[in-house]
Specification:
This protein has helices at 46-53, 76-82, 99-103, 121-134, 151-164, 181-196, 208-214, 237-245; strands at 6-17, 20-31, 35-40, 61-66, 69-70, 84-87, 110-113, 116-119, 169-173, 200-204, 217-222, 225-231. A hairpin with a 2-residue loop joins β4 and β5 (69-70). The chain is built from eight helices and twelve strands. 32% of the residues lie in helices and 29% in strands. A six-stranded mixed sheet has the order 6-9-10-3-11-12, sandwiched between helices. The chain has a four-stranded antiparallel sheet with strand order 2-1-4-5, with helices on one face. It is globular, with a radius of gyration of 19 Å. By secondary structure, the chain is of the alpha/beta class. The chain has one domain (6-249): 3-Layer(aba) Sandwich (Rossmann fold), CATH 3.40.50. The protein binds adenosine-5'-diphosphate and magnesium ion.
Length: 252
């Protein structure tokens, strides 16, 4: 678990919700600078695993390491301070604020003049533009209110915020599930750019083609268990389907 090439790892993770044994002895790891995909049917435990890793849920048992150190996050904010950003389907953007304001939410740039503190709006707008252009994200203006943006643009802003905040690891749970074809392509391009910037990504996706296109390593879950992991280059959609449905039991 202390391999320096590993950004995040866990083992022996169990999670119960009442009578539901949602995670059963799960071991998982993500390599630094790679896109690590998690696939599995609805209810397989993918989101629960992510929530246990970032402290939304506390696992009933198991160990987690982040960046080579034991980690047990009190919640997503705690994980964020450590360098893990989670981009949810229900994005945590504030509709009534502008793109720039959202990008600097909770980490506003402040200028001091004598005893006074001012929000440095100009610096924030400037840095917001730089960040967006670095990641090739197209929005009409950083002064646009987020409420007026499309789903894909909002997704891009959330990811951009994660990068701007210096995240070493960005976790995306079904980031394109609600998006159209063009918006999905934009989010995929963004994932590639994160990888180029050596930001590690964990991507939960239903879309096997997308997983094959984007990921370096893929983990398959079924009914609360990890049932296999492959280098993406050494597998294919058929094998992944077999893994998540259990048809691979005989072949593997
Ligand atoms: N907060 C919760 N309370 C009770 N049961 C939950 C909760 N979250 C998830 N579950 C259950 O845990 C199992 C795994 O769910 P989930 O992790 O959301 O699966 P996936 O993301 O792979 O679709 C499911 O049976 C689901 O109903
Ligand atoms: Mg889910």
């Amino acid at each position: 678990m202390s391999d320096p090439g590993t950004i995040l790892a866990c083992r022996g993770i169990h999670k119960h919700f009442g009578g539901i044994h949602a995670l059963k002895d799960v071991a998982f790891s993500a390599k630094r600078g790679e896109v690590t995909a998690i696939v599995g049917d609805n209810g397989a435990g993918k989101s629960t695993l992510i929530r246990c890793l970032v402290g939304v849920h506390q696992p009933d048992a198991g160990e987690i390491t982040f960046d080579g150190r034991p980690a047990r996050f009190a919640g997503p904010d705690d994980a964020r301070r450590a360098g893990i950003e989670t981009v949810h389907q229900n994005l945590a953007l504030v509709d009534e604020l502008t793109v720039a304001q959202n990008l600097f939410l909770n980490r506003e740039i402040v200028r001091r003049i004598g005893p006074f503190r001012f929000l440095d709006r100009r610096a924030m707008k400037h840095q917001a533009r730089e960040l967006l252009s670095r990641l090739s994200i197209n929005v009409p203006s950083v002064e646009q209110r987020v409420r007026r943006l499309s789903g894909g643009q909002r997704q891009a802003i959330s990811i951009c915020r994660a990068v701007g905040a210096g995240a070493a690891l960005v976790i995306m749970d079904e980031p394109t599930a609600a998006l159209g074809v063009q918006e999905t392509a934009n989010v995929e391009a963004l994932v590639r750019r994160l990888r180029e910037e050596r930001v590690s990504v964990i991507l939960i996706s239903h879309n096997f083609d997308q997983v094959m296109r984007l990921s370096d390593q893929v983990w398959a879950m079924r009914a609360g268990r990890v049932v296999g992991t492959r280098r993406t280059a050494e597998t294919n959609g058929n094998e992944l389907v077999a893994l998540i449905t259990g048809a691979a039991g005989k072949a593997a």
